[in-house]
Design brief:
CATH architecture of one domain in chain A: 3-Layer(aba) Sandwich
Low-confidence stretches of chain A: none
Largest interface: A-B, 52 and 52 residues
Oligomer: homodimer
CATH superfamily of one domain in chain A: Response regulator
Number of strands of chain A: 12
Mean pLDDT of chain A: 95
Distance between the termini of chain A: 59 Å
Shape of chain A: elongated
Strand content of chain A: 5-15%
Chain lengths: ~325, ~325
DNA sequence: CTGTTAGCGCATTCAT
DNA sequence: ATGAATGCGCTAACAG
């Protein structure tokens, strides 16, 4: 690969001049010189070496992102979209995405190593949880990062998140408009922050509509298909006139469990029993009936994250520091 | 961040000595010095800066991987697993994965830029097609890469691939063992290389078993759910005693189309009508019936790719140059 | 064994 | 307006 020296030699100028021209330091060269240099660049086929640039500038132009392994049988339909849009948004400002992994339950050494070796300029942290150790660590280290997802409210760090509360409230309103009054929700365990936001959306929308929330209408379970099935069993053991006719599930996978169990117990999903999921998993539209769901605004989230990360990487003030974006209700056959 | 100079100062030695110790250039230092240096490293909290190392070594320790956007409604359930295992395998040898994107139908400028700026040491190319322009370009440029998937047979480049022929043959044999004789397959268009391999596996297994292949038993379509539905319509328009009782679909998405259409037309999938897919898409196990499918050996593929890439990045001979790994038949309810 | 020095490729300061 | 020189942090050749 040709270097700046080759260009300088070819153009009969110094490397400083080449650098000036290429970095548009106007006032440091004449128009004639500029043309000479540009010609030379063209002729020798020069492109600045990014490693050298980065060393000089003490940066990497890399954002680190940890890809989480998801056990077979669980799914995170959002992360692959996220990767794509995040990488794309980063590229638009001259950054790239460095993807890494870490052993289960032992993320910190990996983050530490990446920081210490100067591998990346900033991190984006996704799939956050309560007391998230990665967030706490990065805050402690004062290393630039932005989170996709919230964590402890008392912690002050920049984040972008889907407004799950708003999304679920929209879903419930949609069900109400369709005539449902006995609407239930299955959420995640109480330790899940985003799960709790979504549940709040349910409660809020039900109250706003003056609809009663039967004791068993709020159920919780882990993120498995099985959790949806169990919830249905509970609901269908209620007296007939108390059984919910519509369910908002915390997640598409759980929604599928709800649909499966309901169908196997004789309910006609989408007709006398409505189900709404969350995430718009790729195959959802091919289920029978097709799955109504809340789609996260991944592209907008990524664009926002990258904007914030750029500021973070340069130790600039991040403004705004918190961004909440509403999901979109995709109405299909199940509800 | 502390540099090698800080360590040298603290240990009262030269930076060369520090470097020698850290890079284990035995014979270049005494045990006593070694301890001093190691202590100093510990005390000042030093980790070598990777950008400086890379500049010196003219490398990046980065493998580039292009993440493909998949239109809504299509799925590539393999790529997210691929990302994870690939990143992990790369990390095991001190590399990282740089993920990038490119505009539809215009990949070459992006590859070119990454090469010219020295952004990565090698590429892994996935989702290959016939006459793949990326492969042709990288061969032309003589830039290190390894492909996950084959392309034109007359091209000489290193690749790793799933043995789709073998996988489909296994699936057909499995169906035969279950008593099926009228077995059909739906493939991809003739331009698809991996699609053709899979179809060959079907033909081979049918012939080996002495089973007739009815004219309409081999159908082709694009990778949509719709293609599976259409195929079923064709088959069910045959005289009853010619209709296939089992189908191997080129892909889970197509298999889902087959299942959906068959079910809607009164077939009891998994009982009087068997369906086998390809890829083990995450939700396949939660379909009713759950989807029997061929699971690609992604983890082994990634390990192999990384081994080959390491050689490629150092311009070493890659041996072996082509690796074919068999998929695993995951038997579930649909067949 | 240890230290001095050059150089990876670039951007930038400071002379001229 | 132009160029020589310096340094980013590291490794390695070479001198002592």
């Amino acid at each position: 690969m040709p270097t700046i020296k080759d260009v300088a030699k070819y153009a009969n100028v110094s490397i400083a001049t080449v650098s000036h021209v290429l970095n548009n330091k106007t006032g440091y060269f004449s128009e004639k010189t500029r043309q000479q240099v540009l010609d030379a660049v063209e002729k020798v086929g020069y492109t600045p070496n990014i490693t050298a640039r980065n060393l000089k500038a003490s940066q990497t132009r890399l954002f680190g992102y940890a890809w989480h392994r998801i056990p077979r049988g669980m799914v995170n339909p959002v992360l692959d979209q996220f990767s794509y849009y995040f990488a794309q948004a980063a590229e638009a400002i001259g950054y790239h995405m460095l993807m890494f992994t870490y052993p289960p339950e032992d993320s910190l050494p990996v983050y530490d190593e990446l920081i210490r070796t100067g591998r990346v300029d900033a991190f984006v942290v996704a799939s956050t949880v309560a007391d998230d150790e990665r967030i706490r660590f990065l805050m402690d280290q004062e290393f630039p990062f932005v989170s996709f997802g919230r964590s402890n409210p008392e912690w002050d760090f920049p984040w972008v998140d889907t407004d799950g509360m708003r999304g679920v409230a929209d879903a419930v309103q949609h069900l109400i408009l369709r005539g449902h009054t006995r609407i239930a929700m299955i959420g995640w365990p109480e330790t899940s922050i985003s799960g709790n936001f979504r549940l709040q959306g349910y409660i809020q929308a039900m109250r706003a509509a003056g609809l009663p929330i039967h004791d068993s209408y709020i159920l919780r379970g882990e993120n498995f298909e099985y959790a949806g099935r169990e919830a249905v069993r509970t609901w269908l053991s209620l007296p007939r006139d108390e059984q919910p006719t519509a369910v908002v599930a915390i997640d598409d996978l759980v929604a599928i469990g709800v649909m499966n169990e309901a169908a196997e117990r004789g309910r006609r999903v989408g007709e006398d029993f409505a189900v709404i999921g969350f995430d718009d998993t790729p195959l959802g539209q091919y289920l029978r009936p097709s799955l109504t769901t809340l789609r996260q605004p991944i592209e907008a989230i990524c664009a926002t994250l990258v904007r914030m990360l750029e500021d973070a990487a340069h130790n600039r003030r991040i403004e705004p520091r918190h961004v909440l974006l509403p999901p979109e209700l995709v109405v299909r056959g199940s509800g």
